[in-house]
Amino acid sequence: MKVSQYLPLALTALVASAAAPRKYKKRAPSPFVSTEGDQFVVNGSAFPFIGTTAYWLPTLNTEQDIIDTISNMSARGIRVVRTWAFNDVETIPENGTWFQLVANGTTTINDGPNGLQKLDKVIDIAEQHGMTVLLSLTNNWNPRPLFDNLTDFGNLTLRRDVTPGTNNTHPRNFLSNDFGGMDVYVRQFGVSGQHDEFYTNETILSIFKNYTTQIVSRYANRTGVFSWELANDPRCHSSVAASDDCTAQTVTRWHSDVAQHVRSIDPNHLVSSGSQGFFCVDCPKLFPRVTPPPPQTSPAPGQRRRSLPPPLTRANLLKKRRIARKRNREAKRAAAAGSKSAVRIRGNWIATPTRRQNDQDLGPAFDGSQGVDSEDIFNIPEIGFGTFQLFPDQNSYGVDDPNLTPFENTVQQGIDWIQQQAASAASMGKPSALTGFGLVTQENSPFFTPFNTSVAPFGSDSGQPITQQPFGVTDEQRDDAYQQWISTGIEAGLRGMIQYQWGQSGFTAQAGTTISPDNTETGQSANDDETGQSPNDGYSAQGVSGISVMDILGQAAQSFAGDS
Ligand SMILES: *[C@@H]1O[C@H](CO)[C@@H](O)[C@H](O)[C@H]1NC(C)=O
Ligand SMILES: *[C@@H]1O[C@H](CO)[C@@H](O)[C@H](O)[C@H]1NC(C)=O
Ligand SMILES: *[C@@H]1O[C@H](CO)[C@@H](O)[C@H](O)[C@H]1NC(C)=O
Ligand SMILES: *[C@@H]1O[C@H](CO)[C@@H](O)[C@H](O)[C@H]1NC(C)=O
Ligand SMILES: *[C@@H]1O[C@H](CO)[C@@H](O)[C@H](O)[C@H]1NC(C)=O
Ligand SMILES: *[C@@H]1O[C@H](CO)[C@@H](O)[C@H](O)[C@H]1NC(C)=O
Ligand SMILES: *[C@@H]1O[C@H](CO)[C@@H](O)[C@H](O)[C@H]1NC(C)=O
Ligand SMILES: *[C@@H]1O[C@H](CO)[C@@H](O)[C@H](O)[C@H]1NC(C)=O
Ligand SMILES: *[C@@H]1O[C@H](CO)[C@@H](O)[C@H](O)[C@H]1NC(C)=O
Ligand SMILES: *[C@@H]1O[C@H](CO)[C@@H](O)[C@H](O)[C@H]1NC(C)=O
Ligand SMILES: *[C@@H]1O[C@H](CO)[C@@H](O)[C@H](O)[C@H]1NC(C)=O
């Protein structure tokens, strides 16, 4: 049986218990999204959501294009769209949207029609459609090869310059990592030029807070804002290296400081991190948990309270992995022996080279090496809910089980990651949301641009002879993985899941802007007389194959938002 055939059923059953409609009458219903125990609440009702990402939403050329996009999302039952509330430039571009000029020791906000008025429109239109917008305030990533001095991939010349008329590989704002962000501040104000100067230099901190003050106060009273995300994927390093002093605590301290700042300006909206959710199992905490709070909401009638999982420690993590591997090995043996009781875990067993793993190695998602301790961040009082992301093409979430195929490992590690995050949130009594997930398909692989580069390594603009082995999963595998991750998330008690990223065509084109011509290779700027499609950095749900992703989101949203 194909997964898609039983998914809606599974979702409906799960949702009936996990996210049963429940009214919250303790306080007067607020039109702002807040939390009650481990649920999001709005207008007096629980607000579990399926969301999507369109970082490019404020760069669209006409109001009608924004309306078309948001109404298409809304028609699928999507309630939250995540977008960038920053667009930093170092020189004023000839065309296109920009929000802040950061240059020559000063910053200037653009609140004109190609500036913050674009973001105003997004919020207005979202409110008109009963949608909310999750706004991210900056980005960890902004590769600028000429500055960052990355070496080349073979013959590949890494180049992108936002100056019009120079050799742009893509139109400005085409890639999610081309909206400025932390490294703009470091380049313009930093002394050492290291990425973590963004987190620690007092001058940079006050300049960034100045930006957040203006953005956050502009929308503080708007019900169309879901929450403030402090940064997309914050960590110690970017394409720019970090100093030796940067630890997870550096990044946690920054979160605490900026979260307090945002809450002081805007008490109406929740604040969240936006990190990948990496754990640091052995790290000392700045915000230690004193006692586990009792769950504040009572279970729905007929439902047992979810029992708390064992705490995330090195010993527990390694033990869990050993047990899983043993179980998979036994299932494989039983399957080979043709036993009737054989459990086939996701399809046929395919022999994979058995590589001896280091059993003591926690891996970068758990050992703090990225400079993120999501549990410590989660415990900051001003952080309203837990966030994490899932991008297996770019991060490692565990140790491969030699009993499983590569695809099975990808899916399984995603499932484990979701369960681990939900468990961590449950022990904290706050809601948890997956704020970005995606898998690169073979069809999308020519557009796949890793977050630390500005060129697609498998694309025609890479300058590489196309001798690369095929990259990416099939569309069917992607759909299978998305469905399994979504049902796992619902079952485990996540309160929101945001796919990365939305795709749409038929937009108004304008030379020099982010919109590519329809029906031709994406990544080029369309001319004024063409219609165009949204950017694709390798994850876009676009065209015929994208519709199946939208259908999956629509099905999940329908069941998930059971109370509306
Ligand atoms: C989005 O909306 C436009 C215009 O309303 C429509 O033509 C298009 O088919 C829709 N796209 C999707 C993916 O639903
Ligand atoms: C910054 O200063 C330099 C030197 O005075 C000047 O050439 C440049 O145009 C300035 N940049 C901006 C964005 O004002
Ligand atoms: C804060 O931002 C505004 C607008 O961009 C700018 O005019 C002002 O100089 C900034 N203040 C500081 C202290 O950087
Ligand atoms: C909350 O209620 C207001 C007023 O009825 C409505 O405009 C808004 O869309 C609702 N919010 C959500 C997220 O449903
Ligand atoms: C790149 O790094 C090399 C070696 O450190 C240095 O000589 C060169 O000036 C750098 N280039 C740029 C553009 O920064
Ligand atoms: C660079 O490109 C040339 C011609 O396309 C090719 O012969 C050569 O092997 C390439 N070198 C590398 C390092 O990829
Ligand atoms: C653009 O790239 C081509 C080929 O590398 C080069 O010849 C040309 O000078 C570049 N133009 C600019 C404006 O940098
Ligand atoms: C922080 O940045 C400012 C502005 O560039 C600089 O003057 C100052 O020396 C930096 N502070 C430290 C401790 O590096
Ligand atoms: C939000 O609304 C409240 C009450 O109307 C008002 O006091 C406050 O100044 C507003 N905040 C902002 C940032 O506009
Ligand atoms: C980008 O990040 C990946 C994964 O961390 C790393 O393997 C790769 O070397 C990085 N590439 C560049 C150009 O920084
Ligand atoms: C900016 O837009 C104008 C008018 O559409 C166009 O002529 C010009 O080439 C564009 N500039 C760039 C750098 O694309």
UniProtKB/TrEMBL annotation:
Annotated compartments: Secreted
Catalytic activity reported: Random hydrolysis of (1->4)-beta-D-mannosidic linkages in mannans, galactomannans and glucomannans
A Pfam entry, by short name: GH5_mannosidase
GO BP terms in the entry: mannan catabolic process
MF-aspect GO terms: mannan endo-1,4-beta-mannosidase activity
EC number: 3.2.1.78
InterPro entries: GH, Glyco_hydro_5, MAN-like
Domain of life: Eukaryota
Domain Glycoside hydrolase family: 31-280
Region (Disordered): 290-311, 509-543
Coiled coil start-end: none
Gene Ontology CC entries for this record: extracellular region
Protein family (similarity comment): Belongs to the glycosyl hydrolase 5 (cellulase A) family.
PANTHER family (alphabetical): MANNAN ENDO-1,4-BETA-MANNOSIDASE 1, PTHR31451
Protein name in UniProt: mannan endo-1,4-beta-mannosidase
